[in-house]
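Work Package 3 (structural annotation) set out to generate three-dimensional models for the target panel prioritized at the project kickoff. During this period the team completed the workflow that converts sequence records into discrete structure tokens, so that structures can be stored uniformly alongside our sequence database. As a representative example, we reproduce one entry of 71 residues exactly as it appears in the project archive.
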Amino acid sequence: MKALHIAAYVLLFVGGLNWGYFGLTGGDNLIEMLLGNTLGNAVNYLYILIGAATLYVAVTHRKDCKICGGK
């Protein structure tokens, strides 16, 4: 479970950086710029993974967080 937790946070971090870059540059997509069109649908799968990671972190955050979990 620790590996899944770390992978989810890495994907969440990547997604957050992409959205921040998107906002700062007025619409440039960092992920598509780095991966380009050479990977075809891989970019879409990465977006799906980032979305799934966000849901995972949102659902498990209270249990994993030392501050919010109240442990």
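The longest helix spans residues 2-25.
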